[in-house]
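To fix ideas, we close by showing one paired sequence and structure record:
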Amino acid sequence: MVTKTTERRERLEARVTAEVKDLIQYAADIEGRTLSDFLVGSAVAAARDSIQTNQVLKLSRRDSVMFHDLLANPPEPNEKLRNAFAEYRKAIGKD
């Protein structure tokens, strides 16, 4: 979370309806926070959640074991993969 000792140099602005502003202000009041603090805290939490959801791959135990086994003992490339690699090398001029 952003600390109070952090120097704030950037500014964010958003245009909202009066109803949305009232709703957000009410939530901030309930938590005893300023509107700005509530907005920044909520935005930071939402940003972290979004990053976690979209950039972290979570596997079941079974899938995790399978993934590890495939990394440790990769199968031999099949014909389709060998052909794709040959096409790639030709496309980049390494053939």
About this structure: The chain has a mean pLDDT of 93. Residues 58-95 form one domain. Helices lie at 18-31, 35-55, 61-72, 79-91. The chain has two domains: 1-56, 58-95.
